[in-house]
Design goal:
The chain has helices spanning 21-42, 45-48, 52-81, 94-122, 133-150, 164-171, 173-190, 214-230, 258-263, 267-287; strands at residues 153-161, 196-199, 204-210, 234-235, 238-239, 247-255, 293-296. The chain is α+β, with helices and mostly antiparallel strands. It has a 5-stranded mixed beta sheet, sandwiched between helices. A hairpin with a 2-residue loop joins β4 (234-235) and β5. α3 runs antiparallel to α4. The chain starts with 20 loop residues before the first helix and ends in a 15-residue tail after the last strand. 37% of the residues are buried.
């Protein structure tokens, strides 16, 4: 799915699904006890190296505290299974083994944290902290597929900041950027918890509202527009009065089903149709005088095969 011309941006997306904490803890403890039993019965060095597995898993799942805690448990279990005083004789020193256990926990936690941070940066709009276009397209594809299966409505809001160019011309582009950031923050604060919001252009935003019909989506749009209009923003160090900023919003809502799914060529095409309809509604709001909300009726589908095009 591609909602703009050209290549998609490569710049907060939800974390990848992770094992629930309780089950992760149970799995870690069970692994440690299983390795302890094997170590006690074999006293074999290859078995002892298995302690690294739960240490790394704990570091990745629970962070450095979990990795270090698991390392200390592994150290205790290792000595319970191989009871003897510290020795530097004919085998790997025990002190070195303990240091390597701890280092494995710390390093795995650091690498996992870096990977999560890089993923978040790659899929987050750095100005507003919302989803970027790539992340939103992934989420919209899932939401459309879910809506087709459940038969529940899916709504889309497309909005932008009114007269941003005039604001840039009079007060500078920093003021314009801070205005866009403020709208992004209002969206993050005022949208339902299941909404997915994205900045896909300079001052353009798109919001997906699963399980929301047209009246519910319009109420969300009105709430966001009211808070933007009531804000007294500080832009580029200059305090501005309320009503300085306003937004125009296009709203579309549709109940997808399996029949709808068969009328078009792909889930991507359904998402693009929904976006096109909301974008058209946005233009109607702009042409109607701005600072208003325009609602488009439910999508009209043609049984002919549609060409999948970029906007």
């Amino acid at each position: 799915m591609q909602l703009t011309h050209g290549h998609p941006s490569t710049r907060l997306v939800t974390e990848s699904p992770r094992l629930p904490t309780t089950w992760a803890a149970v799995a870690t403890i069970a692994a440690l006890f299983g390795i302890l039993a094997l170590d006690a019965s074999t006293a074999s060095a290859p078995v002892q190296h298995l302690y690294y597995l739960p240490i790394v898993f704990a570091g990745v799942t629970f962070g450095w505290r979990g990795g270090v805690a698991c390392a200390f448990v592994a150290i205790v279990f290792y000595h319970l299974a191989n009871w003897h005083p510290l020795t530097w004789h004919n085998e790997e020193p025990d002190v070195l083994q303990m240091m390597v256990f701890i280092a494995a926990g710390l390093l795995s936690a650091r690498l996992a944290d870096d990977a999560r941070r890089l993923r978040r940066m790659a899929l987050t709009d750095d100005l507003t902290g919302l989803h970027n276009l790539r992340s939103f397209e992934e989420r919209l594809r899932v939401l459309v597929a879910d809506a087709c299966e459940s038969g529940k409505p899916l709504s889309l809001l497309v909005l932008d900041v009114d007269r941003l160019k005039s604001l840039n011309d009079v007060h500078g582009h920093l003021a314009g950027a801070e205005a866009v950031r403020l709208v992004g923050r209002i969206l993050a604060d005022r949208l339902p918890s299941n909404a997915v919001a994205c900045r896909y252009g300079g001052d353009e935003f798109v919001v997906a509202l699963p399980e929301s019909d047209a009246s519910e989506a319009s109420a969300v749009a009105e709430r966001v527009a009211r808070h933007v209009n009531e804000a007294a923003p500080l832009l580029a160090g200059v305090q501005h009065p309320a009503t300085t900023l306003s937004i125009s919003v296009g709203v579309v809502s549709h109940v997808f089903d399996r029949t709808t799914r068969r009328l078009v060529e792909s889930i991507d095409a359904l998402g693009e149709q929904l976006f096109h309809a909301a974008d058209t509604a946005l233009y109607a709001a702009k042409n109607g005088g701005r600072n208003r909300i325009s609602v488009t009726p439910s999508l009209r589908h043609s049984p002919q095969r549609r060409e999948n095009r970029s906007l």
